[in-house]
Specification:
The complex is a heterodimer of chains A (about 200) and B (about 220). Chain A is α+β, with helices and mostly antiparallel strands and about 200 residues long. Chain A contains seven helices and seven strands. Chain A has two domains: about 1-35, no CATH class; about 35-195. In chain A, a hairpin with a 6-residue loop joins strand 3 and strand 4. The longest helix of chain A has 30 residues, at about 90-115. Chain A is elongated and about 65 Å long. The two termini of chain A are about 20 Å apart. Chain B has about 220 residues and is mainly α. Chain B has two domains: about 1-45, no CATH class; about 45-210, Up-down Bundle (Butyryl-CoA Dehydrogenase, subunit A, domain 3), CATH 1.20.140. In chain B, the strands form two sheets. Chain B has a three-stranded antiparallel beta sheet with strand order 4-3-5. A two-stranded antiparallel sheet of chain B has the order 1-2. The model of chain B is unreliable at about 210-215 (pLDDT under 50). Classes of the chains: A alpha+beta (about 200), B mainly alpha (about 220). The complex binds zinc ion.
Chain lengths: ~200, ~220
């Protein structure tokens, strides 16, 4: 049996064998996802995500040319500038939603699903899984991407702006991270927890 | 279409691991933990309606300065220019980038108000024990959960402008007082959507529909 999160309806758990989403038959909420080879997919995608994340943070995000002057900026520069202006709350929010939340998500997915893939039990899997679900809505990298586009339009009249390699990695990270989160089949984690008892 | 809720049969589902848990009849359902994964169980979110009302009102309080005060302050060649969200929208319309103007207007002005009005509608409908189209009201709730994050766009635009322009040293740009208010609106409306419990919609809807079908 399974209970819908949105409408509290008790219903028999659909036995999905293939890839797909189980929907609540009363309100249409997603009850759970069935993904074949879920652990392998999540591990592969979050590994790719971690590499993209590293590139996005190490290499210059945008290069900025005004006349003879040329400067480069990384993802972290904006956060540092906000902090330097005394807006620590704002700096913290931008840091959390665009850097910390996606990084923690990627690390947690590796931490939870690599042991599952290898047939082991990971350390503190229960709080790790809960935190992973809670972070989902605080990761706003796709909104940040739209912010970049708007800022570019605003600045094209003042200077020539060249997107750096970090920007392309960041864009790819949006799709990889979404792909990883939708490849999570929670049942394989909880079946493992049940079998430990 | 009209079965009773799990709570009516003294059951609740864990939101982390989907475990079905039996509740004690005389228990107050506070501080319960899922026996499988240890997550806190909320048969219904505690003080959901009151808390959501408080957060919605608080968001309106921050929404006004967020839109009236300057978002950015640019100092260039001794001249100071202050921009609010609306003056930014007007700037983009005048410079021909009407689609960017539309993105900022929808994300910063329209979405927060839409979200707050939807939450108020849902709160009132639950308080009046309405049984009007519960499935559509649940959809409206999902919209409020999805759209709130997009209001962060303008915060990010300011962050990127500050990073680029200050480095380029062609002008000085500071985040104005609206930025912090705006961030507060986004975070508070997200917390408001989280504190609302959509299952309350179905508590009232399930039973009258059932009797209506029998007659
Ligand atoms: Zn449902």
């Amino acid at each position: 049996m399974i209970i819908c999160h949105d409408c509290d309806l008790l219903q028999t758990k659909p036995d999905l064998q293939h890839q797909g989403k189980a929907l609540c038959h009363r309100c249409g909420a997603v009850l759970f996802r069935s993904v074949p080879d879920s652990a392998q997919r999540v591990v592969a995608l979050s590994l790719a995500g971690l590499i993209l994340f590293a590139v996005a943070n190490i290499y210059p995000f945008l290069a900025f040319d005004v006349g003879s002057q040329s400067t480069q900026t990384t993802l972290f520069t904006g956060v540092r500038e906000l902090y330097a202006q005394g807006l620590w709350a704002l700096a913290g929010l931008v840091f959390f939603t665009c850097i910390a939340a996606p990084l923690i998500q990627l690390v947690l997915m590796m931490h939870i699903f690599l042991p599952v893939m290898l047939g082991r039990t990971s350390y503190a899997v229960k709080p790790a899984f809960r935190l992973l679900l809670q972070l989902r809505e605080w990761n706003m990298i796709e909104v940040f991407m739209i912010g970049i586009l708007v800022a570019l339009v605003k600045l094209t009249k003042m200077a020539i702006i060249i997107p750096g390699v970090a920007m392309w990695s960041f864009m790819a990270l949006i799709f990889i991270l979404t792909g990883a989160m939708t490849s999570i089949d929670g049942r394989i984690v909880w079946d493992r927890v049940d079998s430990e008892k | 279409m009209s079965e009773a809720t799990a709570l009516a049969s003294s059951l609740t589902g864990c939101h982390t691991c989907n475990q079905v848990v039996r509740l004690d009849k005389d228990h107050h359902h506070q501080g319960l933990l899922c026996p499988r994964c240890g997550s806190p169980l909320h048969p219904r979110k505690h003080h959901s309606i009151l808390l959501t009302w408080i957060l919605v009102s608080l968001a309106f309080v921050f929404y006004i300065p967020a839109n009236l005060l300057p978002m950015t302050r640019v100092v260039s060649l001794g001249q100071v220019q202050e921009d609010t969200i609306m003056s930014g929208v007007i700037y983009f319309i005048q410079s021909g980038s009407w689609y960017i103007a539309l993105v900022i207007f929808i994300a910063s002005v329209f979405v927060p108000v839409l979200k707050l009005l939807l939450l108020m509608f849902l709160l009132i409908s639950v308080q009046r024990k309405s049984c009007w189209r519960p499935r559509d009201r649940t959809r409206l709730y999902r919209i409020t959960e999805l759209v709130g994050r997009w209001s962060m766009v303008d915060i990010y635009v300011v962050t990127i402008l500050i990073a680029l322009v200050n480095l380029g040293a062609l002008a000085d740009i500071d985040a104005g007082p609206a930025a912090v208010n705006f961030a507060a609106v986004v975070v508070i409306t997200m917390l408001a959507a989280k504190s609302f419990d959509p299952r309350l919609i179905w508590d009232n809807a399930a039973l009258p529909e059932d009797s209506a079908m029998k007659t």
